[in-house]
Structure formats: structure tokens, C-alpha cells
Design a protein that fits this description.
The chain has a single domain, classed as Alpha-D-Glucose-1,6-Bisphosphate, Chain A, domain 4 (2-Layer Sandwich), CATH 3.30.530.80. 27% of the residues lie in helices and 33% in strands. The protein is built from two helices and eight strands; from the N terminus they run ββαββββββα. Strands 1, 2, 3, 4, 5, 6, 7 and 8 form an eight-stranded antiparallel sheet that branches. Helix 1 packs across helix 2. The longest helix is centred in the last third of the chain and has 31 residues. The chain is elongated, with a radius of gyration of 18 Å.
Length: 169
């Protein structure tokens, strides 16, 4: 049996709470930290293909990567926000368990595409925008938040699959 918990980041300083997710997995059979590290490295090389530019920490107790993914908006007046989203994945490995965190989502509009509206850190709570563009900002924030949430869930589920069954991956 495997115990799994996924939750949003909590207990952050006052103000905007950065969007983040974590999952703790405990195995009821003995799985060494060395074996879990091997599985995490297998997942890492498959999911991200080339890790040389994103790998920050790599040892048997912890792997930290800082990847990016492209953000295209959804064509609903969000063209000014086309760019990339930076994020961090931390995998903490111990005998019989691991914890993964997906956090630190930061939107950066790409100036080389002529885009100008960077939203910066993506938060759990909606920013308090005022002025005539309030509904546009809120709509973009909702889309960014959903896009980042979807990415976090995808990363967590993908890692979980190989950590539970590396042969079937």
C-alpha cells in the first residue's frame, strides 16, 4: 500500500501565497533510498530529456531542478502574456518514502516575441487588481493559475508512476 497526500503550500508569509504543491509517499514494503533515487533519475531523464541546464542539486537524498515551460495563453486576449513559466521541482528521498514539491511558478512574458505583460510569481489567491483592466488581469491570472496547477499535477502523477513501478514505466 502507498499513502499519498497532495496539498497546496501553506503557512506562507502574509500577502500573496505562492502557488505550490507537494506529495508525500510512504511505501509499506522496504524500498531503499538508493533505489528510490535510481527511480527518480529514471523519471527525470525521461520526463525532461536533457537535464544539464535545469539540474540544481543531485544527490541520493535530494534532487532539485528548475525547468521552464512555454505559456501560449489561450487566444482570449492573452497574446500579450505569451512567454515562459519557470518553476522548481524538489524531490526529497529517504528509505521507504519520498516527497516531491512543485512550486515557485513565475510567469515571464517574452520580450523577443513583442510580449509585455509579465505576471511574475503565480499565487494561490487572486491578485487585487484595480482599474479598467481588472477583468482582463483576473482572467489571465485564472488561466495562469490553472495552467500551473495542471503542470504540477502532471509532474506529480508522472513521477509517482515510475516511483511505484519502474518496470512498467
Amino acid at each position: 500500500m502507498v499513502l499519498v497526500t497532495i496539498c497546496n503550500a501553506q503557512n506562507m508569509p502574509s500577502g500573496k501565497t505562492p502557488l505550490g504543491f507537494n506529495q508525500q509517499v510512504k511505501f509499506d514494503t522496504t524500498v531503499s533510498a538508493k533505489e528510490l533515487y535510481r527511480r527518480a533519475k529514471l523519471w527525470l531523464s525521461d520526463y525532461y530529456l536533457d537535464t544539464k541546464d535545469i539540474l540544481q542539486t543531485d544527490d541520493e537524498g535530494e534532487i532539485i531542478i528548475k525547468p521552464v515551460f512555454e505559456y501560449e495563453g489561450d487566444g482570449m486576449g492573452r497574446a500579450d502574456t505569451r512567454g515562459v513559466i519557470h518553476y522548481t521541482v524538489k524531490i526529497h528521498i529517504r528509505d521507504n518514502n519520498y516527497r516531491v514539491e512543485v512550486l515557485g511558478f513565475v510567469h515571464d512574458a517574452m520580450a523577443d516575441y513583442g510580449q509585455t505583460e509579465s505576471f511574475g510569481q503565480i499565487s494561490e489567491d487572486a491578485p487585487n487588481y484595480t482599474g479598467s483592466a481588472h477583468s482582463w488581469y483576473h482572467s489571465v491570472w485564472q488561466h495562469l493559475n490553472k495552467t500551473c496547477t495542471d503542470k504540477a499535477v502532471e509532474v506529480i502523477k508522472s513521477l509517482q508512476k515510475v516511483m511505484k513501478n519502474p518496470q512498467g514505466y
